[in-house]
Amino acid sequence: MKRLFKDYIFPYLMITIGAGLAAFAIEEFLIPSTILDGGITGISMILDKITPLQMSVFIIMLNLPFLIIGFKQLGRAFFIRGIYGMILFSVLLEIFHEFANVTETELLAVVFGGILLGAGVGLVLRYGGCLDGTEIIALLISKKTSFSIGQIILGANIIIYMAAGILFGWDRAMYSLLTYFITFKVIDVVEQGMEQAKAIMIITDDGEYMANEIYQKLGRTCTKLEGSGFLSGTKDVLYCVVTRMEISELKNIVHSSDKSAFVTVSDISEIIGHHIKRNDISIKENTNSDVCNSIDTDTEDIISI
């Protein structure tokens, strides 16, 4: 029962709270002052202003393709939590739409709207959900380019805010950009950064199998080391670097591969060297040893400095 609450009930509870905070911030602070969020939500807010359809409709329509892509790349658990978060987010937007606005003072809307929005999005992301498909596509682009997730999202948002400036006035664009920076910093506190890398160390009995599973499902490679437990004997030790959006799915992979595995997750303040992604290496045959052998050479750039 305790494990059921920790692995299933509690994450959905946190996603619910996060979606509620984000929806409240948008409807009660940002929309009344024509201040836009970024990403798909920002695009939906623009379309809500210039079309007869509600913003919640656009959020579902525009995010669905990205969720499907996320399902293929990040797994079933991410897809289910993403669907849950986005549908709940859309429903709560409609509910809060009927409430009286908290304030129409623009400075208060920017500050408190940005804080609440950042706290809500940060909670959703921390517990494996997603409210905006922009993050999914940014993660996938990041895997194939040298750009970080944060850089990609910032670039997309600047385009959205430029469109807002043309449609609603440049002061609205500047207010929106200021809100974005506040939101980003709050997410940084709640979720430890948009592109914060995490170092994962896994102690397991079957390192090759688990390394192959991580590579096949996340596109991340691992360095395989040999360790010896004082009581448990010889063990395989895997070291890999993932993004915060991949933590939830990696936990599922480890749990399904080896329930007795021991895992530690650490923050990384900086990465110097080559950060391995799926397209960085070519594997002639899809075997366990190929995955592990490919890792050792490239990941030394990270470890040896």
Question: What would you say this structure looks like, in words?
Answer:
Strands 2-3-1-4 form a four-stranded antiparallel sheet. The chain has 305 residues and is an alpha+beta fold. The chain has helices at residues 2-30, 39-50, 55-74, 76-97, 106-126, 133-144, 149-168, 170-191, 207-218, 247-257, 288-303; strands at 197-204, 223-229, 233-243, 262-267. Helix 2 (39-50) packs antiparallel against helix 3 (55-74), helix 7 (149-168) runs antiparallel to helix 8 (170-191) and helix 9 crosses helix 11 (288-303).
Label this structure with key terms.
alpha+beta; 305 residues; four-stranded antiparallel sheet
What's the helix and strand layout?
Elements: H1 2-30, H2 39-50, H3 55-74, H4 76-97, H5 106-126, H6 133-144, H7 149-168, H8 170-191, E1 197-204, H9 207-218, E2 223-229, E3 233-243, H10 247-257, E4 262-267, H11 288-303
Helix pairs in contact: 1-4, 1-5, 2-3, 2-7, 3-4, 3-6, 5-8, 6-7, 7-8, 9-10, 9-11
Radius of gyration: 21 Å
**Based on the structure, what is the oligomeric state of the protein chains?**
single chain
Average pLDDT: 80
Low-confidence regions: 279-305
Task: Compute the number of helices.
Answer: 11
Q: Beta-strand level of the residues, as a percent range? A: 5-15%
Order of helices and strands: HHHHHHHHEHEEHEH
Helicity, in percent?
55-70%
Alpha-carbon distance between the termini? 45 Å
Total beta strand runs:
4
Morphology call:
elongated
Q: State the secondary-structure class.
A: alpha+beta
Strand order of the largest sheet: 2-3-1-4
Main pleated sheet: 4 strands, antiparallel
